[in-house]
Structure formats: C-alpha cells, structure tokens
Design brief:
There is one protein chain. With about 290 residues, the chain is mainly alpha-helical. The protein folds into two domains: about 5-85, Tyrosine recombinase, N-terminal domain (DNA polymerase, domain 1, Orthogonal Bundle); about 110-265, hpI Integrase, Chain A. The protein has helices spanning about 5-15, 20-40, 45-60, 65-85, 110-115, 120-135, 135-140, 170-185, 205-220, 225-240, 245-250, 255-260, 275-285; strands at about 150, 155, 165-170. A three-stranded antiparallel β-sheet has the order 1-2-3. A hairpin with a 4-residue loop joins strand 1 and strand 2. Helix 3 (about 45-60) runs antiparallel to helix 4 and helix 6 (about 120-135) packs across helix 10 (about 225-240). The termini are far apart.
C-alpha cells in the first residue's frame, strides 16, 4: 500500500468510526508527519524504526512530553492495526508511564499580565473564551455563530473531545467582545465558523497555538504554560468560587468524575478543616485527655 493509499484508507477508517473533527485532523497531520520522517511507505517501517521514532526522536531529540509521545503511539497503533491491518508487538512500543503531576494554574496577577500583553483583539477574544468558558483549543476553532446563546448565556460545544456535545457558560465579557469582534471583522454576517484566518478560511489550531506562544513570551510566562492552561485555570477557579464537582464535570465535558477531581489538588479552597494533631493537643491543654505528651 502506498502512502497516498494509506492516507485515503485512514480517512475512511476514521470517518466510519465517527471521529471528532479535531481527532480526525490531528491523526491525519501526525501521520503525514511520520510519512515525511521515514521517507518511505509506512507499511515497510520496522518495529525498531518505530521505537527509534518514539523514544529517540520524539522523546530525546524533540523532548516532547510523555503525554504527547503516547498520543503518537496511539496513532501508530491505529494506522498499523486498523488501516494497514498489521499485527504490532505492543510490548516493543509500550505506552510511557506518566508521572503524576499537578496542573499548572496561573495566578490572578499572571492572568492579568498575559491578557494585557495581547494587543490583537481577535486573539484576546479567543484567549478570554478559553479562560471564561473552559473551551479546548479545537472547540474554539470549530465554534460557530449559532453556538452562541446570548439569551441563556451559554455556548453549545458541538465537537468536543470524543465527539461529545455539551453546553458551557458564556461570560458577559466574552459576549461583549464577540459582538465587537463580529461588527469589526465579520460585517458580512455570514453564518459558519466565528474565527477566521487572514485568508478568510476557518482559523486553525496551529495558528491559535502560534499566537498564544507569542504572547506567552511577551508576558514572560513559563514555557510549561499552554493554551490548555487557561482551561485548567477555568476549572480550578470555578471550584474555588464554590462550584460543585458535578457542575464542573458537565461544564468541562469530562467523561469521568476522576478527571474533574484532579482540580481539587490545585484549588485554593478554605475547607475550614483543622489538623487532628492540633485538635488533640488542644484537648491535652484543656485536660480532656488522660495522658500528657512527654
């Protein structure tokens, strides 16, 4: 099978499974990236070459995160086992065990510094949507005019992760900025994608990421801060402001409550709890315990 034939069949395989628009685009782009890297039919690539690609090239040379390397691995498994119908020895290309880390969340001062550095109104609107509504980068790129419900102050997310639909909140500030953006850049009032590129085509995830990095550097924030960090900030701040886990789970579009519970670790919540040691020692001072600590 030639690489062109592979790409055509890969497209059919994903459409048959009703992959989300974002997943489809990502699988296609990363498969093309692998074709360029190996410079030969993927069907002829050996397991050793796949190992070198994952662990020498992606991990050691490009220094990509474990999550990203595992994502490439998932694509490789789909391409070979589904599209090429080849049996892979997964023991030779295992998923990397990920270190349990706490989500990076920006302080109010860091958020203020970042937003103040964004001098492009379109991208400021995009970044504030990510923080104000908890939207993923692909969900923002796919956002349509009819998805904005100004009466109920909510946004309909039609192509979320796993092709899951949901509603999330629409902030008053984002609504006002969207109206200004629309009157300034979209006077033709066409329906369709809200955010367009300079050429008039729908904006891509890559363009949004590129501009985010530009303003992140301008704000002198850590390289670990990504567009997705704004979504983490949204969820964490919601919990800090009293939202329940169930509410946050539905707004974020999580399948499992365990994903939502990760934000409890970084939320600065005043639970009003007291250490058992302090309670015990206070009892000692009041003579409530029969023995004294020596």
């Amino acid at each position: 099978m030639t690489n062109n034939q592979l790409l055509k069949k890969l497209s059919q395989d994903m459409r048959m499974r009703n992959f989300s628009h974002y997943t489809y685009d990502t699988y296609m782009s990363k498969t093309k990236e692998m074709i360029k890297y190996f410079n030969k039919p993927l069907e002829e690539v050996t397991i050793e070459e796949l190992r070198d690609f994952l662990y020498k090239y992606l991990l050691n040379e490009r220094k990509l995160a474990d999550r990203t390397v595992n994502y490439y691995n998932s694509i490789i498994r789909f391409v070979y086992e589904v599209t090429l119908d080849k049996l892979l020895n997964k023991k030779q290309i295992p998923m990397r065990k990920r270190k349990k880390t706490v989500y990076k969340v920006l302080t109010k001062e860091e958020l203020s510094t970042f937003f103040n550095c964004v001098d492009d109104f379109k991208f400021k609107t995009i970044f504030m949507l990510a923080y104000g509504s908890g939207l993923r980068i692909g969900e923002i790129a796919n956002l349509r005019v009819e998805d904005i419900d100004s009466k109920k102050m909510r946004i309909f997310v039609r192509e979320g992760k796993g092709n899951k639909e949901r509603y999330t909140m629409l902030s008053k500030q984002s609504l006002e900025m969207l109206r200004i953006y629309w009157s300034k850049y979209r006077q033709n009032k066409r329906r369709g994608r809200i955010f367009l590129s300079e050429s008039g085509a729908a904006i891509t995830v890559g363009v949004i990421r590129e501009h985010f990095r530009k303003y992140r550097r301008k704000a002198k924030l850590s390289e670990k801060v990504t567009m997705h960090t704004l979504r983490h900030c949204y969820a964490t701040n919601l919990i800090e402001n009293g939202a329940t886990l169930i509410q946050v789970k539905e707004l974020m579009g999580h399948r499992n409550i365990r994903s939502t519970m990760e934000y409890i670790h970084v939320a600065n919540i005043d639970l009003g709890l007291e250490s058992p040691l302090d309670v015990f020692l206070r009892g000692e001072e009041n003579g409530e315990n029969s023995r004294n600590i020596k």
